[in-house]
């Protein structure tokens, strides 16, 4: 089998990740039986249909983009390209094109996350667990994780908040029954049983994100002046709803005779930092 050209995906990864210095022309064909799965692979769900389409493509065109591996003794550990490896094995191929990279455990995980994110392969829960693993195992901050994976800090913080949801709700997100937008709205409810109730209603009734946001708002135990919102200025109420939709938290505008104030709720130090990033990006170094 002749060497194949690199596809755009991994080529872009190599260019964008300054720590991944690999000559893209140096592709080797290695024994597929010597390649072990990456124990840190952030992606857990591999759709059968998608894998079948990849197998059909490989039958017709071969493997156009090599996998990325690192040497582990006499064997190789996969860093990126698990779908290609699985498809090749199911097709009973004996060799597979690969780029061999010397890298650490942390860098291996980082590369695996970046590749999956660039391909939009990770579901929100897989992404959240991958971010948490980087933070927990390698003592990284949210800022550092955001920098490594090419996302802003608020996005990383919001994604990590999904881990606060009950396991049953997390499973709904993994299965695609609940979108990331739905999940963010659900996080506005502090009561776990109420979160689960709303989640089940989303699945049963096919509620839109906007409908969930409204339901979340009225499910909270609001003070008296909030429960009487119908008597209040509808323009003020509309502004509150827009702010709540944007910030994914409770917002209350209190009007006085000549002045007023806006109250924005947060539910943890991470949530506060998320709001700071949204409201005053790069202007405050928050230490809790």
What composes the largest sheet?
A: 5 strands, mixed
- The helix-and-strand class reads alpha/beta
Sum up the overall morphology in one term: elongated
H/E element order: HEEHEEHEHHHHHHHHHHEEH
Provide the helix percentage: 40-55%
* Sheet with most strands: strand arrangement: 1-5-3-4-2
- N-to-C CA distance: 58 Å
DSSP strand count: 7
Strand content: 5-15%
* Poorly predicted sequence stretches spanning 5 or more consecutive residues: 1-22, 222-230
Average pLDDT metric: 76
Continuous helix count? 14
Radius of gyration from the CA trace? Answer: 23 Å
Write the layout of secondary structure elements.
Layout (H helix, E strand, L loop, with lengths): L7 H9 L11 E4 L3 E2 L11 H14 L5 E6 L2 E6 L1 H9 L4 E6 L4 H14 L5 H15 L3 H8 L3 H9 L5 H8 L5 H7 L5 H14 L3 H11 L4 H4 L6 H14 L3 E5 L4 E5 L4 H11 L9
Parallel strand pairs: 2-4, 3-5
Antiparallel strand pairs: 1-5, 3-4, 6-7
What does this structure look like?
This protein is of the alpha/beta class. Helices cover 51% and strands 12% of the residues. The chain is built from 14 helices and seven strands. It has helices at residues 8-16, 48-61, 82-90, 105-118, 124-138, 142-149, 153-161, 167-174, 180-186, 192-205, 209-219, 224-227, 234-247, 269-279; strands at residues 28-31, 35-36, 67-72, 75-80, 95-100, 251-255, 260-264. The strands form two sheets. It has a five-stranded mixed β-sheet with strand order 1-5-3-4-2. Helix 5 packs across helix 7, helix 7 (153-161) packs antiparallel against helix 14 (269-279) and helix 9 runs parallel beside helix 11 (209-219). The radius of gyration is 23 Å and the shape is elongated.
